[in-house]
Specification:
It is a single chain. Helix content is about 25%, strand content about 25%. It is α+β, with helices and mostly antiparallel strands and about 525 residues long. A hairpin with a 2-residue loop joins strand 8 and strand 9. Helix 8 packs antiparallel against helix 10 and helix 14 packs antiparallel against helix 15. The termini are far apart.
Length: about 525
């Protein structure tokens, strides 16, 4: 086997958002103490510590860098490093992977961490009835076995050069074997912070454990308090009035007020986050590719970037592979706003007009309702009549997404192309929110996954992006920068992670009181 160190894998382009923020201390000045109060959206009354169900920032932040750990971690700089795994090695075909686990780690209830915990934590994602978004990742493992108490081996059904990256997925948290249900109920992990209280959809409170393997490198706060504030206006007000120290997803309407406040810093990072309008392609009329193409040409993408993102992003072409990915197809022909082409494809579908419902809520993304109304206005000239249905924010992800034929959604993007495609575009996976299944795309997905030649991989991923642009079921009009805000009382490294919001969701371990 070839030895692959924690940073030995190819550094993906998904990595680092580098910020030049004067006055903010760097890691050398990090200090212990204080309570981080964060106002976050994405909370629901159905939230739990079951990683299989996590889909938005509130529970991601409660887990990553807080209560739980994964086997690997994508650092703020985009490099892959070990978390509960210290190192890993693979056979030349990238089909068999051996992970060497960190020793001396205990769960918050005192149970030592080891190989049995890894096997049970992964097995839960493929258990009967599981709807985990990580199901396709774990299902690709044909055999898992314990070599020693601190070494596990995975044999994949096909080679995957990105496999160690996948072990950092925020769904694949490590739980104590034999007591997973209790750990989910009480929030018991190996993370830097143990659960003090958790009121789903309302609040999480955690306190720093006395000792941890990350001591001296992470976990500076004494306490955490994450407050669910789904309403954008209320969330911005909470920061401006000093009720919280940081907020995610700033409301661009109040951005000038926040910039004028000397106690607030706006933090903007370019990543692969994208806002979408997925169509269920097995439901009429979206089962007709010509209808989908008409809808693709009926949306004014740049208008959405200008008015919804206020310029904090760029127009997209219905592919989730973004500017921070290694194989981003930056030269793909743009999908321009073209009512003549929209009319042409309606005619190809045998239609002179089209009436569709579009279910939206700002729970999907800030400005989703306004964005849908702009889409409604832009498409009307082609005979496309979009009825915007405003859905309740609470329960949006369980009652609307994956259920309504045409809705608003978003994805954070992923560090590698295969990770993104396997999450939401592989046929039959739980988060394939368009139910799209294209034979050539699926063929390329499996081929590129095992391909170790960079040039061949690039060609395959570029072709896949072209197929999505032309035939896919998701309208992806824009890539959105992560724009969050924090008090000048909070310090952080110069480099902030851009894989997910809030420093890859790990502000609890990476930030400190300045």
């Amino acid at each position: 086997m070839s030895q692959i160190s924690r940073r030995g894998l190819l550094k993906s382009g998904a990595a680092a958002g580098v910020l030049a923020m004067t006055g903010l201390p760097l890691r050398a000045q990090a200090k212990k103490g204080g309570r981080l109060r964060a106002g976050l959206n994405g909370a629901n009354t159905s939230d739990s510590f079951d990683g299989r169900t996590h889909s938005d920032i509130f529970m991601i932040a409660c887990s990553l860098g807080a209560v739980f750990d994964c086997l690997t971690e994508v650092g703020a700089d985009g490099a892959l490093k070990g978390e509960l795994a210290e190192s890993w090695e693979a056979t030349p075909d990238a089909k068999t992977w051996t992970f060497n686990l960190r020793q001396g780690v205990t769960f918050h209830n005192g149970k030592p961490f080891g190989a049995d915990d890894v096997l049970e934590s992964l097995a839960m994602h493929t258990a009967e009835g599981s709807k985990s978004a990580a199901q396709p990742i774990v299902a690709a493992i044909s055999e898992m076995k314990k070599i020693t108490d601190h070494q596990v081996q995975f044999t994949l059904s096909a080679g995957n050069a990105d496999f160690p990256y996948l072990m950092s997925d925020y769904h694949i948290l490590m739980y104590p074997a034999g007591m997973i249900e209790e750990a989910i109920a009480k929030g018991i992990g190996t993370g830097l912070y143990e659960t003090v209280s958790f009121d789903p959809g309302v609040r999480f409170v955690g306190k720093r454990v006395a000792s941890h393997y990350k001591d001296g490198t992470a976990g500076w706060f004494d306490e955490l308090e994450y407050i669910a504030i789904n309403d954008s206006t209320a969330r911005m007000n909470a920061l401006m009035t000093g009720q919280v120290d940081t907020v995610n997803r700033i409301d661009f309407k109040t951005e000038p007020l926040m910039k004028a406040n000397p106690m607030i810093v706006i933090q903007e990072v370019t990543g692969n986050q994208h806002y979408t309008f997925p169509m269920l392609t097995k439901v009429a009329p979206f089962d007709d590719v010509n209808v989908r193409r008409a809808l693709k040409y009926g949306i004014n993408r740049q208008e959405l970037v200008d008015k919804i993102l206020q310029g904090h992003g760029l127009a997209a072409n219905d592919t989730p592979i973004g500017p921070a990915n290694q194989y981003y197809h930056k030269d793909i022909e743009p999908l321009t706003y073209d009512l003549d082409k929209a009319k042409f494809y309606l005619k190809e579908a045998g239609l002179t007009s089209l009436d569709v419902d579009l279910s939206v809520s700002d729970a999907a993304f800030n400005g989703a309702v306004d964005g849908a109304q702009l889409y409604q206005a832009s498409a009307k000239g082609a005979g496309i009549n979009i009825n915007v249905v405003q859905e309740p924010a609470d329960g949006y992800w369980s009652n609307v997404w994956l259920k309504k034929p045409f809705c608003a959604s978003y994805f954070s993007g992923r560090a590698t192309e295969d990770w993104m495609f396997a999450t939401a575009y592989e046929a039959g996976v739980p988060w394939n929110d368009t139910q799209w299944d294209h034979p050539r795309f699926q063929e390329l997905l499996l081929s590129a996954r095992a391909e170790l030649d960079t040039n061949k991989r690039r060609e395959q991923y570029h072709e896949m992006q072209q197929i999505l642009r032309d035939d896919g079921g998701a309208i992806i009009p824009m890539f959105a920068n992560y724009v969050q805000a924090l008090s000048t009382k909070i310090g952080h490294d110069e480099t902030v992670g851009n894989l997910w919001q809030m420093d890859n969701g790990r502000m609890a371990e990476r930030w400190w009181m300045a």
